[in-house]
Amino acid sequence: MPIVKLKKFISYSVFLIFCLAMPISVFGATIKNDNYPRLANLFFRWDITESEARALVKWDMLIIDMEAQKQSPQNLKLIKKLNPQIKILAYLAPQEIRGDSGTLNGTLRQNLFQKIKENWWLKNDKGEKSAWWPGNPLINITAETELARGERFADVFSDFLRDEIMQSGYWDGIFFDNVWDNLNFMTDFGFDLNSDGKAESMEFINQKWREGMADILQKTRAKIGSGYLLVGNGGIFYNKYLNGVLFEHFPKYGWTETMKKYSGISKNGVVPSFGVINSNVNNSGRKSDYQKMRFGLASSLLFDGFFSFDNGDKSHHEIWWYDEYETSLGEPLASAKKIVDGENFSLSEGVWRRDFSRGLVIVNSTNKEQKISLNGDYEKIFGNQDSQINSGGFVQELIMRPNDGLLLLKPIDRVQKGAYENGSFVRAFGGSGKLTRNGFFSYRDSLPGGSKIVELTTGFVAGVDNEVRVYDKQGVLLKKFFPFGREYQDKINLAVADLSGNGDLEIVVAREKFSSDVKIFDFYGEEDSASFKAYAENFQGGVDLALCDLNGDGQMEIVTGAGFGGGPHIRIFEFNGKLFDSGFFAFDRSWRNGVNVACGDADNDGQMEIIAGSGLGNSAKIKIFDFRNRKVKVEFSPYNENYRRGAEISFGDIDNDGSGEIIFSAKNIF
Length: 670
Description:
This protein is of the alpha+beta class. Strand 26 (492-497) and strand 27 (506-511) form a beta hairpin. The protein is elongated and about 100 Å long.
């Protein structure tokens, strides 16, 4: 199952697998505002490679040239398959077309070009075609043109959008480039709208142009229906016809002026309404201009829109990814407010703050350095690109550069979804082995230290010595039982999942010592007949557990790791206890420290990986394996070399941000 930045399924190992709802859900033309930042990519390529498609699934909205449905249909399908929630909009311009479109055989542009009548071109008072972008003749979209079989361009164009674009099934909406509300920047062109050989006044031209553009948008909406998004580049004048407006080249036209328009579209546009801020590096190729990216991203987060960052208007086909894009701030808790020189909501240059459920954003839109008090402890994000800014450190106040922005996270004090040992020091890592959050001691004071805890959305399950306890979300004990009888006096390992996909959670339990018995119980403590031995009858080392749908059939596999005294042998069983894979040795097979196991899509490639942690007595080592070929994809050390208690691991969502992490639990570190 695909897991992108907006991850749909999270599998927890050592103790848990758990399913999460998508942070942003899109059904028809509705967009939920429950996870920020929201990212857009202006990717105007006609031909999209498979590797590009796999990279593009990380964005929330893609604006892709309409020709991709002819040139790259399979990869458009792949994007939707890997991220069903993504919104893909077809890019085209309503007022101009490439001059060579008539010769581009088999293209949508050729089809459209052939529908344009000769008297529908926008000409000057000398009868010559006009062009704003070199090589792209302008179209006369006004009602001043002659009718052709009772139609004008707006009729033919809206039919084209319905019949040849939207009915293809590839798109969630249309992106109109250059939705101008006036032609004042072309006053020297001498436009002749009605072909009488005379140039009209700019006042007349602008009025007719606005009417013509509004006619295109109205007819398009009427023909494709309300279930699709319409977005325009610079179309704030037409917000009553559009869901969204792109503000390109931010902040070229002034921070305050652009932000006023950006905030306005969310109030006045067609629901769901949003703005898209596009910052770029003026076609310089300087993708490492991190401050410019942060300033645009942080500014976009002051209101409920999307953010795009790329090279500029001469390319718009970058797959630039930044540390901040990995951050999940959650949903906004309040409106943005100005925090320097008195709190107020007057939209003007200053220092702005907006709080989210998992963090906050700060914007310094002034031209001078600012000292800012945060009124609490926050974490900087961990990053590789601008390590001085994204150092992962704790901060209570900041010195911010002019025209800069910053995303900060709230500290966490307990694993939110996943598994850990009560009182252990927890660290979270991404699939590359990079630390994603500061370490902390995760503890539930209602349970003894050392208890094995699985955090669920609906409550939690604990292994307290030899006993399983089931709690609701309020911490009320619902059930307790001894899976191996009261006479067994040592600890247990456990995992929780809906094994068969029937909607009911099961608890899978193994001894930590003395046998390789694995038992399966329902939430009422009733044992399933599928219980089995994971290793040899005489093996006394116990078993570590993880649960994961490795083959994508909707049913969980049980991943086992031999306990202390055994080799680092990993085996895989079906949910009914039948052997699925005889397994492999994750470390040197001569080791007798056992192996810890976890399972999840650690690197967001849509495939579940098996994750192995070194056993007790070894230094802490973690390996991520491709289940299909058993090759090591990543290997790293989660702690210092002097720590000799191995690597106890799970896979979960440590901060409830919708993204899975490898969770490492260190014990007895003092």
